[in-house]
Specification:
By secondary structure, this protein is an alpha+beta fold. It has one domain: Peptide methionine sulphoxide reductase MsrA (Peptide Methionine Sulfoxide Reductase, Chain A), CATH 3.30.1060. It has 6 helices and 8 strands; from the N terminus they run βαβαβαβββαββαα. The chain has a 6-stranded mixed sheet, with helices on one face. The protein has a two-stranded antiparallel ribbon with strand order 4-5. A hairpin with a 2-residue loop joins strand 4 and strand 5. It is globular.
Length: 169
């Protein structure tokens, strides 16, 4: 299994979306690349901890390439929004791809270049080595499964677009 850390705004919806992708074997929400060790949600939201709400993604590279995973991830975010997704604003809602293996960097860079080629505004998705990651509180894990109908910046149409993309291969 391989791991990548994806920040796509509020982690509730990003986690639910990513978990639907065949080849993803595990997801967990947490806080990445900030300056406060062991942050709480309150630290991240109100105390300028600098973390991004992030989904740890464990996937099977035999079933899902990193390139394909990233292409599907881009469908769920506004890649040109800086520190914002949907109605959520702030540095914790920034978009990013945080990697742990240097072998992933060229794949990520190629993917972002391809995305920029089809986008007329500058792409704001960061591509950075993972500096730190802290698991979020239990009540955030699988939040939309536990709370159907809760707020999500990713609309139902985006989940449907994922379903169509998966059917088309």
């Amino acid at each position: 299994m391989k791991r990548i850390y994806l920040a796509g705004g509020c982690f509730w919806g990003a986690e639910a979306y990513i978990a639907m992708i065949p080849g993803v074997v595990k997801t967990e929400v947490g806080y990445a690349n900030g300056k406060t060790p062991h942050p709480s949600y309150e630290d991240v939201k109100y105390r300028n901890a600098g973390h991004a709400e992030t989904v740890l993604v464990e996937y099977d590279p035999e079933r899902l390439s990193l390139s394909r995973l990233l292409d599907l991830f881009y469908l769920a975010i506004d890649p040109t929004a800086l520190n914002r997704q949907g109605h959520d604003e702030g540095i914790q809602y920034r978009t990013g791809i945080f990697y742990t293996g240097e072998e992933d960097r060229p794949v990520i860079e190629t993917s972002l270049a391809a995305l920029q080629a089809v986008t007329d505004k500058p792409v704001a998705v960061a591509a950075e080595p993972l500096e730190n990651y802290w698991t979020a509180e239990e009540y955030h894990q699988k939040y939309l499964d536990k709370n159907p109908g809760a707020y999500c910046h990713i609309g139902g149409a985006v989940f449907e677009e994922l379903r169509r993309a998966l059917e088309q291969g």
